[in-house]
Queue: 4 jobs
Job 1
Amino acid sequence: MSDYFCASGVRRARHTLLGGLLVALTCGSVLADQNPRDPYEGFNRAMFATNEVIDKYAAKPVAQVYDNAVPLPVKASVGNFFGNAGDLWIGVNSALQGKFGDAGIDLGRLLVNSTVGIFGLFDVASELGLERHDEDFGQTLAVWGVDGGAYLYWPVLGPRNVRDTVGFAVGAYADPVRQVRPVSVRNSMAALRFVDIRASLLPSDRVVEEAALDKYAYIRDAYLQRRRNQVFDGRPPRLDD
C-alpha cells in the first residue's frame, strides 16, 4: 500500500512539474512575441474589437452604399476636392520639415486646382506634373526628433501612436473644413469625407481578411511600417536585429 501511494505521489509530482514547465514555456513564448512598441496591447485589442463592431454595422455599410450608388467621376471629384483642401496643411508641414521646394509645389497645387481645377474638383495639378505629397504634423514632429511612443488603437480613428495622436489633434484643429459655416454644412462635409475615405478602403478589406491570421497584429505592423516609411520619405534607415 505504501508503495502505491509513493508511486502515485511520484506521478502527481511529475505531472505538476510537466504542467509548470508547459506554463513557463507558454508564458515565455507570449512575452517573446509581444511587440515592444505595443505595451498597451490589451487595451488596444479591446478598442480594435469595438471599432470592428462600429465598422461592421455603421461605417462599412454606408461606405458600400456610397460606393455602389455614386458614379465614379463624382467620387473622384469628391476625393479631389478634399485632397485639394488638405494641400494647404501639407504645404505647411513640408515647410516646417525644411522641405521648401515641396512646400512650393504643394501651394502651387492648391492654386492650380482651386482655380483651373474648379475648387479642386479636378486634379489639374497632377496632369501638369505637380506631385502630390503626403505630409502631416505627426511626421513633422518625427522630423523634429519626437519619438513615436507607444502604439495605440482608437475607435473610428484607427491606429496611431502617441506622437501621431497629437499630430492628428493638431491637424484636425487646422483642418479647413473645420472653419466652414454654418455648422450643419461643416458636419455634412466632414461626414462625406469620412464616407469617401472608408469607401476607398473597401478593396483592401478582403486582402486583410485573407492575408491575416491575426488581423489586429497585421494592421498594427502594417501601420508602423508605413509610418516609418512616410517619416523617412520611403528611405528608412536599416533597423538593428
Job 2
Amino acid sequence: MDKVKLSAKIREVFGKKTKKGKKEGLVPAVVYGKKIESKSLWIKALDFSRLLKKAGESTIIELDIDEKDKRNVIIYEIQKDPVTGKFIHADFFQVRMDEEIEKAVELNYIGEAPAVKELYGVLVKSLDEITVKCLPADLPSEITVDISSLKTFEDHICIKDLEISPKIKIELDPETVVALVSPPRSDEELEQLSEKVEEDVTKVEGIIKEEKTPEGEEEKKGEAKKE
C-alpha cells in the first residue's frame, strides 16, 4: 500500500512546558520501536488530522523528523481531550518493512441491506475492527464489509466472506459473524417491552404512581406509612 507522509520536529520540552506548543497548534508525540532509541517530537495538529481523515489509523506513515531522519511508523496510540476532542498526545511505533506486525484494522460497512430496507430489520454489527498480522507494506487502511448481501434474516457475513488479501493473517475463527440483520420486534414484543419499562420505572426510588380509588380520590402508592 502507499505510504503517507508526516513531518515532525524534535521536542525538547515536557510536561506542563508543552502548553505553549499546544496553543500554537502542535501535538506532543513520541516515536519508539525495537532496539531503537525513543525520540520526543512535535507534530502539527492540522497535518495529523488531515492524515487521519485521508488514511485512517491503520497505515504506514513516513515520518520525516527535522527533514533529515525518515522512518516508517504506524500509529500505536492517540490521546484526545475528552471535552474538546483535541489531540493531547500521539505514539508512533517504528516498523521494519521485512518484519510482520499486528495491528487492529477498522471495518468499513458499505452498501444497503435489503433485509433492513424491505423487511424493516435491524442491522447488527458484531465487530468494529479486526486485528491482522502482515508485513507493513501489506497493511490495509481499512477492511470493507458490503452488507448488500444481507437479503433475509437468515443471511449473515462471516470473517471468511470478507475480501482480504492472502498476505494478511487473521487469528479469528473464519466462521465468526461480522454482521447480520435481526427481525423487527412484533407488536406483542413492543407492548411487553413497554409494560416492563413502566413497571421498572415505578420501582425507582422517589417515583410514585398515582391511582384513583373507586370513590374518585387519588391515593399515592409507595408513600411511607405514618407511624
Job 3
Amino acid sequence: MSPRPIAGLSEIADRFDGFILDLWGVIHDGQTPYPPAPDTLRKLTAAGKKTLLLSNAPRRAHALVTTMTGMAIPRDSYGEVLSSGEATRDALIARDDPFFAALGNRAYHLGPERDRTVFEDTGVEIVDDIAKATFVVNTGPYDLADPLEKTDAILKAARSHNLPMVCANPDIVVIRAGQRVVCAGAIAGRYEAMGGRATYRGKPDPAIYELAIKQLGIADRTRVAVVGDALETDIKGAASVGLPAIWCTGGIHAAALGVSYGVAADPAKAIALAAKEGYSPAYIIPGFFW
C-alpha cells in the first residue's frame, strides 16, 4: 500500500494506543522545539495515548529529560524515554553480547564530555591515552562543527591497535538548528572502511524497538505506531519489527523533498524517495502536528 498523507495525528489516533516518537527532526531540532510539538505531546497524553521517546542520542535517558525540560517541554506531557546511549550503557554492564563480552575494561572516549553519562555505573575506566585502551566508545565529534575528517588521526591510532569500537549513535547526520551535523554513525562507518570493527546500539536495530514496545506496556503491537523523520533509522527500524511508520517529511529529508518543517511534501515525490531507499511508511506527515 502507498503511504497515506495526513495533516496531523488526530486523523489516525483512534487506530493506536501508543506511539514511539523520535526526537531530533520530529519534536525538536537539537536546540528548539518545533512549534507544534509541545501541544501535540499534550494532546496525545490527554487522549490517553501512551508515548515513548526513542532517540539515537548517545546519552542516558535522564539527560534527554533534562534537555527537554530546558526547552520548556513539561515532563508530564510525555511518557517513557529510551536512548541509544542508555542501550549502550546497559550493554556495557550486562556484557551478554559476545562483542561486548570481549571488550575489556579500559575505554577511549571519542566524543564530547557531555556524553559520558553512557559510562555511569559501568565500571569502565576512561583513559586519555588510546594506546592503553582496550576499546573505543564513539559518541560523535568532539565539536558539532567538526568535519568528519577531523577524527581520522584518532581512528588511525585505534586501528593501529586493532581496537573494537562501540558506536552509541548509529545516525549518520542530523539537522541541528537548520544545519546538517555529522554523527557517530558516520565516524563508525569511516572506521569500518579503514578495516576496524564496530558494533552499534540504537535505531534501526530491532532490539531497541522490542525494548521500546516492552516499556510501553502495550500487548497488542498492532496498536503501536512509530513517528520518525529518518528513512534509514526510524522507518527501517519500524519495518524491522512490523510496526506501522509515520514518516515526518519535514526532518532530515526535507531538503531532498524541497520542503521545510511543517510544509507538506508532494506525495508522489515523497513516495518515490521512500521507495528508492526501499521503504514504504504507512503515513506521511509534514511535522509533529495533532
Job 4
Amino acid sequence: MFLVNPAASSVTPRTRVVIQKALAADHEVVLAETIRRDHATRLAKQAVVDEFDVVVVLGGDGTLNEAANGLINSQTALAVLPGGSTNVFARTLGLPDDPVEATGILLETMDKASPKSIGLGCVNGRYFLFHAGMGFDAAVVAEVEKRGRLKRYASHALFVYAAVDTWLRHYDRKRPAFRLKHSDGSVIPNSKFAICLNTDPYTYLGSRSLKLSSDAGLDQELVTISINSLSVNRMLGLVSAAIRGSTAFHNYSYIDYRSDVSSFVVEGHRPFPYQVDGDYLGEVTSLEFSYAPRVLELIMPNPELLGVSD
C-alpha cells in the first residue's frame, strides 16, 4: 500500500506520481489517500486485514504516527518517506529530505533486508515513534495547528514564532501543571514542561537537530525529561545545549532526567495539553505511559546506502 497524505507540506501531484511509478516497477502497489484526521490509521488497519507486506507512507510525522498505530502487533511493515514540513522520524532514520531520493534508498533496502521489529512508547493507548510532549511544547503545537495553512510555506519560522507567542501569551509559566509518578515510587511533584523520548533528536530546527539524550533509541526503553522552569534564560540555555548536542543540562536543578523508563504516570494539577509525534491531542488531567517492545515492523534504511557505517 502506498499511503499518501495529499495535504502534507511537501507532497505534490508530480512527486506522488513519480514515487508510485518507482514503487510499481517491481512491486504490486495499491494507492490510498488520506482525507481526514485518523484516516491513515484505518487505512493501515485495512492493509493488515488484506495482508499487505508493507505500507509505504508519504506524509508528515502526524500521518506516519497514525499509520504506525494501525500496524501495531502485525506482520505488515511500515516504510517511511518524508512528505511533511519537519520529517523528524524520517530524518532520525537518516533518510534525505527529498522524497524521491528517499524512495530509491527505500526500494534498495526492501530488496536486500528484512523489516526490523522495534519498540515504541505508548500514552493512553496511543503509540508514538519519537516523542510525546506535555505542557509547554504541546501548547506550542496547538498554536501551530491554528495556523496550519502556513506550515507548507514557513514551517520552521512558524514554530519559532509560535514558541515565542505561546511563552508570552498562551501558557501559564508560573504555576506547575502536573506531577510525574515513576514505577519505582519516586515522584516529581511539580513540572511545567515534560518530554518522553522514544528516539533522539527531539526535533529539528531547519537543518539543525535538537538533541536531548544519547540514551534514547529504538532498541532502548523510554527517556523522560521534566522541566520546572520556563524562564527565558533557562529555556534559551536548554535550546542552545540541544543544538550543540550537550547533555550538561541533565544535571540542572530544575530538570529531572531519567533513562530506561518502562512506565510512569502523569497527574495534572489542572487540565494540561499534550502532543504525540507533533500531533496535538488536546487537554487531559492524567496520562499513563509505557514502553512496548517489538510492536512494529519497520523498513530500516540500509546504513551503507546512507553513507553511514554500522
